[in-house]
Design a protein that fits this description.
The complex is a heterotrimer of chains A (about 280), B (about 325) and C (about 425). With about 280 residues, chain A is mainly α. Chain A is about 70% helix and about 0% strand. In chain B, α2 packs across α12, α3 packs parallel to α7 and α3 packs antiparallel against α9. In chain B, about 45% of the residues are buried. The chains are: A mainly alpha (about 280), B mainly alpha (about 325), C alpha/beta (about 425).
Chain lengths: ~280, ~325, ~425
């Protein structure tokens, strides 16, 4: 019976740790949910009291009934989807080139990418604004995409190049002997084998572009072009804020992000590379 | 590593800037390969340069002027005056120290806990999807919301933090006013940063762990290795690269902390919890001193670059053996 | 057709001047009329403001005011753009740098000198022919916030001030009368402490917090020309004003949220829960108390008086027009409409105090609680209108907090603040 005992203990201790950590992680979130069902929420109540005394759906009704809310949701979705797709494509291409291809200036270009990681985007707002103005990309939703993609490339390229380097070179070489050019090696070998890494990029990119606030607010003026984070920020007043309203709106906004996460974390399953070595 | 050579073209000596002795032959095939490599790199790189590097250079140039944002007005050249002012500015120096302390606190914790959780969730545990979602929730919650909640947790009255510190752990005799002092305020902000970043680090480690081929683990198990040994000899080498990536990114992120400080304390009280980017924001957008704000940003960038370059070179050397 | 348009405008301008010349000495309240020139107004007017989503303010603006204006001027469309308040200043700065400003902005009164100094605002006192008609109708304190280097760059839109809000039940319990002077407040403090409350609470040490005390003590920040602070900010009267608060804090009659209120008990929450006896706050608190603490009755009275009287600080917003506006005629007309009685009264109903001084007596019938604010506004003063104010405010905040903590004396703190302020003010003179 000993191995089963050990297995139960191992499982048991894991679950204890996971539950403890999970509780700490999720508690503020639970408080957020609880407040979103409160009717009077100008001041946050006692954090240890999670169950609202008279729960109401009013906050959600108000948020969903706000003029243009559906519009903002769709705006955010389109921008986020397009940006994420482009980020994945461009950063994986660059990462593959840095990890597996050889070309003059490779070290220089990679250094420029690393340097970009350290630049805080907050301080670039005015030059970027002037650039957007000169490119006639102001006050336009498609105009957000080049900026979102461009500012995310350094991070994601860096992330993916680390993962691509881990792919055994023998596999690359095997394909090259078969006459495969870099495109086929990238598309048929590196990308499929890097599903976890690519999944990570998708998750982070979608979250980043969905939640982006400062640049979208600076550039967009027309009310019907706005994105969701701006709409949520508008629920905050100058002198007082109904936090239940803000939390309800935030929770609605979290749903797509969680959906993307749940969808792509399925990639984080061991065994994807099974059989690759046997080629 | 061998590169496929075209059997037609005669070999030539090392060309096209490549330094590795094995690439001695420059052929049409080689040129095609280089062209292909550029098509991989240049589209993304060009966009990146346009949207990030070009504005960054403009900001750098701006830092050498007493920049006036009004389009028509003059912006006199002041050379390195903004930078020498930054070095002599006690608020900026303290801000750098605060950012360093924040980084020193949050980075190791996020790596350790994130890695630990990733290891726990890598195994085939029933309900693991639910836990993965649970740990990711802090990452997706907006900063505005979590800052508000953490202000409540660290409230000067009978908040949760005081309950733990005073009543449970008995580390302090009476309720702490967390946000009235520099180090307790930074501590609260650092706890928030760690809490919010653990899921992020966990995600990257999870991706790295699941990339380890199962056969390697099985082979090790057949050889008689137990779980900690399997982890040490099979999983760890695989995630070393992820470790280095996560460390650099968290390090940079730590020094560039901004929104949480802005929302929690605004840099106060009296510049005590100021970090370089909140100070930059105040100088540039509140006081309209963009030249100085840019100088602050670039000084921060240089500090972070120097530190991460060192770390990167060190890790590359370790990886290449 | 161009000639007819400008001809109509000329007739209207002449008529306005003639009317103004014939008017009696007391300011006329201009009713929005469709003058001959106004019918020709067309185009879009873009108006940036910070009313939050789903608020009564934006509902009144979009549901009542703009439709009424568009009915009077069918050729004009007013496009109002709400921007979150915390980000409006940054967006204005960025837009100014990129020359992408709208036609009209509802700007915080503190931003007007700064924007005027950047050269992006239209100098209304010189370019608007009937400026004096409107400037004469508003409270002088509110108008002064638009002044920069001798020219007015905007008109007040809505105003507010701080009055003493207090918890009547606490004073009953302590057995003391509600204080009308600073000395009375300090005398009542021990009894209030016995009743379990702080005598006074505030959440900062900047101009908005300190100025009522400094001014009521007879002090000042700068000279009238806003050229220097030494001799004013650190005058004996100013020092006394701040010293009163420091003394109260040291004696334990004020909570430490004055040093920074993150994580502390907010002033409104403390007042409603009998922990704070008095606070200084604005008219927006009434709907907040009604919603959050329906069982609590808040009372109001004037700011505790000192040798300088009972002087409070003016807050509010101004309406400004940008130089880059492509539709100045229509924008100006909308500005006039926002300052009409019907507009101002519509906003008054939902908590935005009007700037038209002759509406003062009516306000108490709209919202009973307005009466104390109207009275306080008679003597309330604005913070010094200078682009350097943001920095000076920050310096005052730091120095006065140091004095409150006991790191330095009040005189030292204000001396230091004054000398730094001098250097900053010198940049603009």
């Amino acid at each position: 019976m000993s191995p089963t005992w050990r297995k139960t203990l191992s499982y048991g201790s894991r679950y204890v740790l996971l539950f403890a950590a999970g509780f700490v992680m999720v508690y503020p979130f639970l408080f957020m949910i609880s407040t979103s069902f409160k009717s009077r929420s100008l001041a946050l109540g006692d954090p240890t009291n999670l169950w609202p005394t008279s729960p109401t759906l009013d906050n959600y009704r108000q948020v969903l009934g706000t003029a243009n809310f559906g519009r903002y949701f769709i705006n955010s979705a389109v921008v986020a989807l397009v940006s994420t797709a482009l980020i994945v494509l461009l950063s994986s291409m660059m990462a593959y080139a840095f990890a597996r291809l050889d070309f003059p200036g490779k070290r220089v270009l990679f250094t420029v990418i690393i340097v970009g990681l350290t630049i805080p985007t907050m301080m670039l707002i005015i030059p970027q604004f002037l650039l957007a103005r000169d490119l006639h990309l102001l006050n336009s939703l498609p105009g957000l995409v080049p900026f979102y993609v461009g500012t995310a490339l350094a991070f994601n390229t860096f992330l993916l190049s680390g993962f691509f380097r881990q792919i055994p070179r023998e596999l690359d070489e095997a394909m090259m002997i078969d006459g495969a050019g870099p495109w086929r090696r990238y598309w048929d070998l590196a990308m499929p084998l890097s599903k976890p890494a690519v999944g990570t990029v998708i998750i982070f990119s979608f979250l980043g572009t969905w939640d982006e606030f400062a640049w979208a607010l600076t550039v967009l003026n027309d009310v019907d072009k706005r994105t969701l984070p701006i709409a949520i920020a508008l629920f905050q007043g100058q002198h007082s804020t109904s936090w239940g309203l803000v939390f309800a709106a935030s929770l609605i906004a979290i749903v797509p992000v969680l959906a993307v996460y749940i969808l792509f974390q399925r990639n984080f399953v061991a065994g994807l590379t099974t059989g690759a070595l046997k080629h | 590593m061998s590169t496929p050579q075209s059997t037609v073209a005669p070999p030539r000596t090392a060309g096209l800037g490549s330094r590795r002795p094995r690439h001695r032959v420059a052929t049409a095939g080689r040129r095609r390969a280089i062209l292909a490599a550029y098509t991989f790199v240049l589209p993304g790189f060009a966009l990146y340069v346009l949207v990030m590097i070009y504005p960054a250079i403009q900001t750098l140039l701006l830092s050498f002027r007493d920049w006036n944002i009004a389009p028509g007005m003059a912006s006199p050249w002041v050379g390195l005056e903004n930078y020498s002012r930054a070095f002599k500015d006690p608020v900026f120096v303290d801000a750098l120290a605060n950012a360093a302390a924040y980084t020193a606190f949050t980075v190791p914790l996020q790596i350790l806990i994130g890695l630990g959780l990733a290891v726990l969730l890598d195994a085939k545990l029933p309900g693991r999807v639910a836990f993965r979602v649970l740990f990711y929730l802090p990452v997706v919650t907006s900063w505005v919301v979590v800052s508000l909640l953490f202000q409540y947790i660290f409230s000067s009255g009978d908040g949760l933090a005081n309950h733990v510190v005073v009543d449970m752990l008995r580390l302090a005799p009476e309720n702490v006013s967390w946000f009235q002092e520099r180090w307790s305020g930074l501590f609260a902000i650092a706890v928030l940063g760690t809490w919010k970043g653990i899921g992020w680090a966990m995600l990257i480690f999870l991706a790295a762990l699941t990339a380890v081929p199962v056969e390697l683990k099985e082979a090790a198990q057949l050889d008689g290795a137990n779980a900690p040994q399997r982890f040490r000899y099979v999983s760890m080498p695989a995630i070393r690269s992820a470790l280095s990536v996560v460390f650099i990114l968290l390090f940079i992120g730590g020094f560039n902390v901004f929104i949480s400080v802005l929302l929690m304390t605004g840099g106060g009280p009296g510049n005590a919890t100021q970090v370089p980017l909140t100070y930059m924001y105040q100088q540039a957008f509140k006081f309209l001193d963009f030249g100085y704000g840019s100088a602050i940003s670039f000084t921060l960038t240089m500090v972070v670059l120097a530190a991460s370059a060192l770390q990167y070179a060190w890790s590359r050397r370790k990886m290449e053996d | 057709m161009k000639y007819r348009k400008s001809g109509g405008a000329v007739i209207a301008a002449v008529a306005a001047v003639a009317l103004a010349a014939c008017s009696s000495s007391s300011p006329q309240v201009t009713q929005p009329t469709v003058s001959a020139g106004a019918q020709e107004l067309t185009g879009t007017v873009t108006y940036w403001h910070a009313y939050s989503a789903d608020s009564p303010e934006v509902a009144t603006l979009e549901g009542t005011i703009i439709p009424a204006f568009e009915k009077l001027h069918p050729g004009v469309t007013v496009n109002d753009v709400p921007i979150p308040y915390d980000e409006l200043h940054q967006k204005l700065i960025t837009a100014a740098a990129g020359e992408q400003l709208p036609d009209l902005v509802r700007a915080d009164i503190g931003w007007v000198p700064e924007l005027a100094n950047l050269g992006v605002l239209e100098p209304l006192s010189t370019s608007m022919p009937d400026f004096k008609t409107y400037s004469a109708q508003v409270y002088p304190g509110t108008l002064a916030t638009n002044l920069w280097k001798g020219t007015y760059y905007g008109l007040p839109l809505d105003t507010n001030t701080r009055v003493l809000l207090y918890d009547a039940s606490l004073f009953e319990k302590a057995g003391v009368a509600v204080p009308t002077t600073v000395d009375e407040l300090m005398a009542a403090a021990p009894a209030l402490k016995k009743a379990g409350a702080f005598a006074f609470a505030d959440n900062g040490a900047g101009g908005w917090n300190m100025l009522p005390w400094i001014w009521s003590a007879g002090g000042a920040i700068t000279d009238d020309g806003v050229t220097k602070a030494s001799g004013y900010l650190n005058s004996a009267a100013s020092v006394k004003g701040v010293q009163n608060l420091v003394d109260m804090y040291k004696a334990g009659y004020m909570p430490d949220i004055i040093l920074g209120d993150s994580g502390g008990l907010a002033t409104s929450d403390g007042l409603a829960t009998d922990k704070y006896a008095t606070i200084l706050d604005g008219p927006w608190m009434y709907p907040i108390f009604a919603s959050q603490y329906p069982d609590f009755t808040v009372s109001a009275s004037q700011v505790p008086a000192g040798p300088g009287g009972s002087v409070s600080v003016v807050g509010g917003e101004d309406i400004v027009m940008t130089q880059s506006s492509k539709n100045k005629a229509a924008a100006t007309e909308f500005m006039r409409y926002l300052l009409s009685e019907e507009s101002q009264l519509a906003m008054a109903k939902i908590g935005q105090m009007p700037v038209l001084s002759n509406l003062g007596p009516q306000l108490a019938s709209i919202n009973a609680y307005y009466s104390q604010f109207v009275e306080q506004l008679q003597t309330a003063k604005p913070r010094p209108p200078t682009p350097a104010w943001s920095q000076i405010d920050s310096i005052m905040q730091d120095e006065i907090r140091a004095a409150i903590r006991g790191d330095k004396t009040v005189q030292q703190a204000l001396d230091e603040a004054a000398s730094q302020a001098d250097a900053l003010l010198a940049q603009f003179n």
